[in-house]
Amino acid sequence: MTPTVVFPVIIGGLYTAGVYLLLDRSLTRVLVGFLLLGNATNLLLLSTGGYRGLAPILGYAEPDRMSDPLPQAFILTAIVITFGISAFVLAMIHRSWALARNEAVANDEEDRRVAGRHDTDADELDPDLLAPEDRPAGHSDSLSARRRTGADLTELADDVTLPLSGDER
Amino acid sequence: MTAVLLLHVLAAVLAPLLVRWWGRQAFLALALAPAAGFGWVLAQLATVTGGNEVRETTAWVPTLDLHISLRLDALSLTLALLVTGVGALVLLYCSRYFEPGDDDMGRFAGTLTAFAGSMLGLVLADDMLLLYVFWELTTVFSFLLIGGGGTRLAARRAASQALILTTAGGLAMLVGILLVGRASGSYLLSEVVASPGSGTAMVAGTVLLLVGAITKSAMVPFHFWLPAAMEAPTPVSAYLHAAAMVKAGVYLVARLAPGLADVPGWRPIVLGMGAVTMVVGGYRALRQTDLKLLLAFGTVSQLGFLMVLVGAGSQELAAAGLVMILAHALFKATLFLTVGVVDHATGTRDLRQLSGLGRRLPVLAVIGGLAALSMAGVPPLLGFVGKEAAFAALIEGGLPDRTAAVVVLAVLVAGSALTAAYTLRFWWGAFARKPGLPDPAPAELAHRPGALFLTAPAVLAVAGLLAGPAVVLLEPLVSAYADTLPLVADSAEKLALWHGWQPALVLSAVSLLGGAALFAARRPVNQVQRRFAVGASADEGYWNVVQGLDRLAVLVTGTTQRGSLPAYLGTILVVVLALPGTLLITRAPWPDEWRLWDTPLQALVGAVVLIAAAMALRIRQRLSVVLVVGVTGYGLAVLFALQGAPDLALTQFLVETLTLVTFVLVLRKLPKDISERHRPRERAVRGVIAVAVGALMAGVGAVALASRTATPVSAAYPKEAYDFGGGKNIVNVTLVDIRAWDTLGEISLLVVAATGVASLVFLRRRTGGVDRLEAADLAETPSASGRAPRRRWLAASATLPPERRSVVLEVITRVLFHTILVFSLYLLFSGHNEPGGGFAGGLVAGLALVLRYLAGGRYELGEAAPVDPGLLLGAGLLFAGGTGVAGLMLGAQVLQTAIVETTLPVLGHVKLVTSLFFDMGVYLIVVGLVLDVLRSLGAELDRQEDEDDPIEAEAGEVIVR
């Protein structure tokens, strides 16, 4: 089929604007970019349906003069889903603002922490660095001196400090 | 067989409950499951020794040709007797090992019973893949049992070490199973052994299978997980790490030896590793001071011994191996249980702190002594018979290669001497009086073991004692397995306690004397051991590897995950540009000719849309940017209409309006302007990427249409829609019938999104409807304000402050609300034949709610829709899903439409299409979504502001919830 010039131009323009906004750090602009991308994609889907035609409703038009109904069905649900997702992102924006007075996408603290990390977890430490009672038996020829199950939990407490939960702070 | 396995599953599931009811006595009831299994297996003895086998096959995944094929032959029967018998006794023992108030007993009981079931399944499985499933199940349960409550570092490390090692071996084994199964043309063990395949794949597969067996049975250098696993409670050590699980590898080798022993690589691996393990284990055992560890290294040593015997692939050694498997399970389980009693009674397992226990617990000393004699190989116990048979076999044959046979024999004699030495050390350490220690030590016994506590070790020890002289009775069972292997010696020797004066007896005596000598010279031996202690151990190597992996993971994560969302998105987009972009330029069918437009109107609307999009880039005011984006949306609706898609135009128009409202609801709480956070260079990079992606997508659009050459799938839709879907609006029929599965998934997504919105906004409780009007709320409002309208047009608008009220809006709302609702229902019901449908109808109803909320505030929303949005969402999903189920129950396919046409009095001709109910579900979900969004982003935000919710934080304060 012969493509029109007008659709690719609109699609390209909307994608350009959408991607530019999507790469912003402000969540509002990200969301706006997301909406533009959604519109652009819906239009792309529509344009793949071919030439314009009459409404795909029997009784209004003969089947051979109808526009293609399949992309339309795709787009219809996509429109509503875009609304659902936008509402979700808006709720995220609200929450981010209400909690931190900031609606920007910050760098992920956890990722930065991993990137700057040198130590490994306690469970992966070299056995030689551990207290003798924590060494595996195959390593040190001794099992830790301990009572059987059911001992007091405080006695069994080990080196891992669990983060305090919110209530305890 | 299946029934026995299911009995174990049932017992395991009930175990926590039983423990809660009956405390530790529950173990007695749980012991019945393996005991029943034992009874059943014993009942099959006559059948199996008669040369038959018991088989059961249940279809599992027929399409993959997977079956639960179980088979009980002589080898399986022997192992199954051990697994069920020792299992029942260990559970019996548990009922006294634990104290009434111990933590975690329910979890432990369930896991141990489940393990018993999976171990039984492992030895019964005939299908190799089924065997693998049971194999990994035992690994998982072993992990859970070693780790215990997860409160201790050493236990956690031991558990994960065992898990990682045996799972790694298990995975290798899985690959091996696939290779061997492919090469042999069958995944059934019985068929693989009967006619093994050949070629490189077979050799590789066999080696991989052996890797699984070697790690599971703790061969050097993968042995270290077994001593570390001694962190587990003693019953676990006795059952999993002595009698049952560690035998899995030995079992697999014994199972495959009749078919695969001649595969290249088999004998060097099995014999080499077995022999080394036997010596290393014995040597390490000799210097342990913890009784449990001593036994653990002893187990490692004995596993090496067993591996040599069953892996040799000759009839005479296999017979000796099977006897040894029995003997080892009996004596080693007894010894572990004995240690458990010692530990229980004295509170220590350190042989340097125990002295004179034998006289205070004479029964226990005798039980432990009997088992120790069997382990050392002293006549007339079963351990002696097995060892003697092995020596005799190797003297006369045993292996095809004579030199190898002599070397192996020498190693076995040396290993047996070590075994005798550490046996003596064990018994002496546990029970003897020692110089230099107070007698008795410890001075007082914490608990004196009761009769029931001693029953399990006593039964096992006596079984080992009786089985020696009665070994002739085992002969039919053992030969039923051993006869499947070729005989290397000239003549087969029957199993017996006494074979007369023969060279093997001399070797037995040599090993016993050697052991005694090693024990007598324990001080110098210990000094030598200490002097030649090797700095590096396999365990340390393991941790170095694990640590290296961990470091690598941190390095890779740290390098690739920089934590910046724009950076990630940019990376993804650049990849999109690089890969699909290249294809688009080089391979895509570019169009030869272009049209400007279908109608000039498209260009006009397009220009508006593009200008709006460009403005969105520049505008920094939040609300303005939203309006501008709204313009692109409305423009799109016009384009849809021009293209011949009235449903889309309608939906887009409604959604755009809703989106605008929702945006305003949230953005009113935010600062007016968006601050710029990017440096010019960053913006330039973003611009380049954006333009490139835009160009790419424009190209995709052009190419997509140019490549539209085949007849579209939707060509037949008009006819199908009317004939099968019973509707004239093809788009709607596509949604509710032709592609109803799709729609079902999509409306589920809407439910999730709605729930997500509410979860993010509501801080305490998400469910429930919007707050409704109460008399008190009205009374609180300032009535003094004379300017407020007197007449109430809406139920709750009086709750709003006067300056926020608009009479015009209230009147319009009052007039229009019900009309709009009726219109939304009209759209829903006519949607099958006209533009409309559940989506459009739901959106219109949602807009009616928006109107009420805007005109009358949050209480007005509660009055307008006094329902829990969750109820709407759930009911909608139920409607839509129920339509599918109903169709299924009526014998049609899921979500298939049924058309009922009838002529009713008064109503006239009625045509009912069942997909209408599906569409009603869609309607309800869309209304629920809008209501949930309004309730969260509208009413709840209002409430938080009205009531000055303390949850609002100070600037810069970080709240962790």
Distance between the termini of chain A: 67 Å
Order of helices and strands of chain A: HHHHHH
The radius of gyration of chain A is: 30 Å
Classification by helices and strands of chain B? mainly alpha
* Biggest sheet descriptor of chain B: 2 strands, antiparallel
Q: What portion of residues of chain B is helical?
A: 55-70%
Number of helices of chain B: 38
Average residue-wise pLDDT of chain A: 76
Low-confidence runs of at least 5 consecutive residues of chain B? 779-786
Total strands of chain B: the figure is 4
Helices of chain A, by number, come to: 6
Shape descriptor of chain A: elongated
Low-confidence stretches of chain A: 144-169
Measured by DSSP, the beta-strand proportion of chain B falls in under 5%
Biggest chain-to-chain interface with counts: A-B, 129 and 184 residues
Structure keywords:
heterodimer, A: 169 residues, mainly alpha, Helix Hairpins, 6 helices, 51% helix, disordered C terminus, B: 961 residues, two-stranded antiparallel sheet
Describe the structure.
The complex is a heterodimer of chains A (169) and B (961). In chain A, 51% of the residues lie in helices and 0% in strands. Chain A has 169 residues and is mainly α. The termini of chain A are far apart. The model of chain A is unreliable at 144-169 (pLDDT under 50). Chain B has 961 residues and is mainly alpha-helical. Among the domains of chain B are: 267-526, no CATH class; 534-582; 600-673, no CATH class; 738-775 and 791-949, no CATH class. In chain B, 69% of the residues lie in helices and 3% in strands. Chain B contains 38 helices and 4 strands. In chain B, the strands form 2 sheets. A two-stranded antiparallel sheet of chain B has the order 1-2. The longest helix of chain B is centred in the first third of the chain and has 32 residues, at 153-184. Chain B is elongated. Chains A and B meet through α1, α2, α3, α4 and α5 of A and α8, α11, α15, α25 and α26 of B.
